Amino acid sequence: MDVNLLFKIAGIGILVAVLYQVLVRAGREDQAMLTTLAGLVIVLTMVIKEISNLFETVKTIFNL
User: Fold this and answer.
1) What are the pLDDT digits (tens) for 6-51?
2) Per the CB 3.0–4.6 Å rule, which of 7, 12, 32, 54 could disulfide with 23?
3) pTM for this predicted structure
4) Radius of gyration of the chain (CA)
């Protein structure tokens, strides 16, 4: 796992948190929730790719 992945996830989290606060204070709670969900989906796709790479590595190590 690369350290850059952790920095990307942290950056997305900070960006989503700031956007959420701005949108809530502007009275746009629906858009704030959609922004949070979009950030979650982006992070989950990044993590799923890494989990897939982990399973491929385990398969090659154990010759499965």
Assistant:
1) 999 999 999 999 999 999 999 999 999 999 999 999 999 999 999 9
2) 32
3) 0.82
4) 16
Q: Which two tokens stand for residue 55?
A: 């399973």
Q: Which two tokens stand for residue 50?
A: 């890494």
CA distance 25 to 20: 9
* The amino acid at 5: L
Q: How is the chain split among helix, strand and coil, in percent rounded to 5?
A: 90, 0, 10
